[in-house]
Write a structure and sequence with these properties.
Length: 127
């Protein structure tokens, strides 16, 4: 699976987070957040995502609706692994250190990480 550029990723996040297929207007409404969103730019990005196999377009009357063809979890897993491998030498410790070195972890974050580690340790023992 190829990496999605940031502008296209923003559209995909809107589509993934929608419970149903979305139109360009739906996407515009969810993206506006105080900035100008140009409809032609959105259409270009949607067309690119469709060509690359991330979206499927279905026309209903005069409106095109867009459906995700790639699951959010699958994309995030692959992209997360790509960042981990490329930038942190596949080291989760280096990744966490880079994120929290200056500000440290609070007790809740440490407990959450420890619970994850304990869960993974138990799963490893069961194999």
């Amino acid at each position: 699976m190829r990496k999605i550029p940031d502008a296209e990723l923003e559209l995909m996040m809107v589509i993934w987070d929608s419970e149903q297929p979305v139109s360009r207007m739906d996407i515009e409404t969810k993206m506006e957040n105080g900035r100008d969103v140009v409809p032609s730019t959105i259409l270009s990005l949607l067309a690119r995502l469709e060509r690359r196999g991330f979206l499927r377009k279905e026309k209903q009357g005069n409106i095109n609706y867009y459906y995700a063809q790639v699951e959010k979890a699958a994309y995030l897993k692959e992209e997360g692994q790509r960042v981990l491998d490329k930038m942190f030498g596949s080291s989760l410790k280096n990744f966490v250190t880079a994120l929290y070195d200056d500000k440290g972890l609070n007790h809740e974050e440490i407990a959450e990480l420890q619970a994850f580690i304990d869960e993974q340790t138990t799963a490893q023992k069961g194999r």
